[in-house]
Amino acid sequence: MEPIFENTEVAFSLKSDSELERAYFLFRMISIEPLVKIGSAVTNLAIKAHLPIEGLIRATVFDHFCGGVNEEDCLPVIDRMFEKGVSSVLDFSAEGKESTKEFDAAMHTTLKIMDFANERPAMPIAVFKPTGFGRFKLFEKLSKGESLNAKEQEEWQQVVHRYDMVCKKGKEHDIAVLIDAEESWMQKASDDLVTEMMQKYNTEKPIVFNTLQMYRTDRLDFLKQEHKRAKENGYYLGYKLVRGAYLEKENERAKDKGYPTPMCSSKEATDTNFNDAVAYMLDHIEDMSLFLGTHNEDSSYKMMQLMAEKGFQNNDDRVWFGQLYGMSDHITFNLAERGYNVAKYIPFGPVRDVMPYLIRRAEENTSVAGQTGRELTLLSNERKRRKLN
């Protein structure tokens, strides 16, 4: 296919010269692995010690990877991107919560975002994380097939209620609800609950979307089984396909506990699994919708090629591409330029609450081979292009 992702003028059209320089500086820093590790440790210590570091973080890494501290704060970013044909998915990125009060607050924030999105065509999708709505250990216990005591059963019903409230709002507002995937040892409980929500709310079209992490060897079979179940029971499927974000953690746990890793044996095997799932979903698009969450150029080209071969319009509303805010603008904006449905995940929240997300983002960029180098090359090319002009 035509190599559209080299066009840096389109990719960075929303960045001022100073924003471009900041991005280049950040990715230069992220490319130095020891610096990321030291910086992460120092930042965590500073947060725990309540040192006044918010201003520094806000002016650098926060403003690059996050839209703002609340949904109104994100509006300038949302509006500017939509002018370029890029939609927004606001992602409340506070992590590591444990209490009922915090889980209810996360649900109400998500519902508030959906009401906010209902007035804005730029925001057709909402998202939440399972452990934003309930305790990890509760998901884990259910996933193991263990019985819950009376208190835990009551707690689980509250989790079900939170899922249901958000999925119901999605149906009312015609907003897709993307539910993230997490570690394999807690995922079954969330999968079962998401399937229940699909049966309830995906009766006319996909509203509720689960997430399949294709570095897991079992996910393609899971997709086919869920497709069979959906056809038998008369509802639609929605899936976000990703490669996955917990590879080292998954392999370490499997080794420590002495069970076979659920991960693919290599990156090549993951890529094959991912591409096979894309092909399967496009082959059965009459029954499902696909959100391709990827920063991988080859996967994006493959999807574009398959869409063309099957006669899909670029803007077929059953097919979406998505990337994270602050990353892979060369994919996002060049796809939008050609009329594809594409969205940016925009994390937001109080600076201190979002710091765990930002640290994870920096560490993932460091560990993904070639990701940071590719960003730096493109940013460097655009700096040169602007200087020549």
General description of the model:
The mean pLDDT is 91. The chain has a single domain (67-366), classed as TIM Barrel. The longest helix has 24 residues, at 150-173. The chain is 59% helix and 12% strand. Helix 6 packs parallel to helix 8, helix 7 (136-143) packs across helix 9 (184-201) and helix 10 runs parallel beside helix 12 (267-283). The protein is globular, with a radius of gyration of 20 Å. An 8-stranded parallel β-sheet has the order 1-8-7-6-5-4-3-2, covered by helices on one side. The two termini are 28 Å apart. It is α/β, with parallel strands linked by helices and 389 residues long.
Helix content: 55-70%
CATH topology: TIM Barrel
Kindly estimate the percentage of residues that lie in beta strands according to DSSP: 5-15%
How large is the count of helical segments?
16
Largest sheet: number of strands, sense, barrel closure: 8 strands, parallel
Give the topology, please:
Layout: H1 8-11, H2 17-30, H3 33-48, H4 54-65, H5 71-83, E1 87-92, H6 100-118, E2 125-128, H7 136-143, H8 150-173, E3 176-179, H9 184-201, E4 208-213, H10 219-233, E5 237-242, H11 247-257, H12 267-283, E6 288-293, H13 297-309, E7 319-324, H14 329-337, E8 342-348, H15 351-367, H16 371-388
Parallel strand pairs: 1-8, 2-3, 3-4, 4-5, 5-6, 6-7, 7-8
Helix pairs in contact: 2-16, 3-15, 4-15, 6-8, 7-9, 8-9, 10-12, 12-13
